[in-house]
Amino acid sequence: MDQETIERFSDHMQRTGGLTAEEFEQIAHLLRSVRFTKGAVVLEPGSVCNHAFHVTHGLLRVAALDRDGNEHIVQFAPEGWYASDRSSMYFQEPSRLRIDAIEDTAAVMVGQDFVDAACAVSPKFAKSNTTLLHNHIRHMQDRIALLLGARAEERYQKFIAMYPDLTLRVPQRMIASYLGITPESLSRVRRDLAERNFRPRV
Amino acid sequence: MTYRPIERVIAPGQPHFVGDGFRVHNFIPHGASVSMERMSPFIMLDYNSKWEVPPVKAPLGVGVHPHRGFETVTIAYKGKVEHHDSSGGGGVIGEGDVQWMTAASGVLHKEFHEKEFSKAGGVFQMVQLWVNLPAKDKMSTPKYQAIAHDRMAQYPLPDGGGSIEVIAGNYNGAQGPATTFTPVHMYNARLNKGGKAEFEFPANYNTSLLVIEGAIRVNGTEQVATDHFVLLANKPGTIQVEATEEAVVLVLSGEPIDEPIAAHGPFVMNTQAEIMQAMHDYNQGKFGYLED
What we know:
The structure holds two protein chains of two kinds. Chain A is of the alpha+beta class. Chain A has nine helices and eight strands. The radius of gyration of chain A is 18 Å and the shape is globular. Chain B is built from two helices and 24 strands.
């Protein structure tokens, strides 16, 4: 067990999940830490997702594969984020998503048993978990609306507001995939922004 | 003679790739023993030890990336690097040359093996250093100093021992061509077998040696092999280097910049708020645009 990873998750739970240190301690035995090297597959499409992966270090990617095997990135999970297929986990059905590591990653595996136990020991956690779920739904709704109706630059602006450092960590083609635009369109967006905002100093 | 003591000798660790063109051993920062603060103003040192690069059609290297808040110094020992930036600048760093880029308020650049070198393949050996800037200069205008090998000051050592090539700072009156924002000495000691050189810096200057070629004996006793890094203690005294075989040693010494360091990827500032600002500016195109 990687104690540092669990401790980071404990801090996160106390900060945002409403658990006290003592409550966390009571149920921590239900957690497992895990490490993935860059490129490792965390969840294969067709298998059931039994855990949410809370990233304490590194970066996971959640992607859907189309009929031709092309990937479409649904979500990035850097430090402090969860990567999972919520519906597969809840309904215990095969996932259509693939999760893989795009950096060496340390994560905590959070199963339904931990969530149930945390709800039982802490009403505060139960409430925060509901909020987290609705936040997730809000995020998905925003994302659908953006993908259906927003211009490329608007999508990019939302992306950098949410993930300020990912432009430094992932290649343009992955960001383009997440935004549902071509890499060329993303280049155009960035070039247009530079034309408006770059003041070369000589 | 009082020798300046050695704090530790660090062997090269497992190399990792920066992009696909630089296969480097990281010496600064290095685990718990060498923090950015410990070697300030030298806050990063990546050493590409000799690497036989096969001929390739598309040059290997590192794609477009930003920097803010410090200077990058590239010392080419073997092979050639070509670079381009968002202000339209660019050039080739050839064998023996040094490129001193003051990223300061922000530069977007890319670095690849030079085209002809890539086609032919060959041995590649480089050092890339990041030299921190004091808070008052972090947002100054970016600039380049392209320092060709023949512009470096040479101090011949007695008895045919070799020479000290001064990139920055001063060695016994030989003044290096690079201008710096804080006091920095940077030399290549090119020593013949048996050649000896002595170095003396203020005790508080963070000081190190990196053996690029050959092998040396430091302070009369400590044998140091090729590709090893020597961290000197911050105590007064003379550093004596003797080549036990023909050697090239990169000597670094600088006055520490006693300011807080907030570092995130390619940005090194003083506060977390300044890091967030750097990310924002980069994302909003304020570093310019450069085609991949």
